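note to self: dont lose this again. the chain is below, predicted strucutre after it. 125 aa total, dont forget to put it in the shared folder this time
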Amino acid sequence: MLASLAADFVVLIHFGFIVFVVAGGLLVLRWPRAAWVHLPAAAWGAAIVLLGGICPLTPLEQWLRHLAGEADYEGGFIDRYLMPVIYPVGLTRDVQVVLGVLVVGVNLVVYAIVRKRTSKRGAIG
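---
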């Protein structure tokens, strides 16, 4: 039971990290210092997707599920609503690359806006 709850918690962290990678640049529009956290997270997320890597949270979650005796993802809110977002059906390498490029592109636009705003005020932060 504890391992299953821990696995669900890892999925929540994973989902939150994905949201932060994709949309965290919007926080930087409001709080430019958030860039110090967002840029490394976005770089990591983009690198994992573009290079076809595996986020360390995935094997951690799988190990915890194995400890809990769970064979597959089934059951409650986490599995029904978050898992398809993190592990979508039909996710191919080409789709991963397109998603990675979109994430990088969106963040480049956001950071260009931040740079323009901060250059008018002086310095970032």
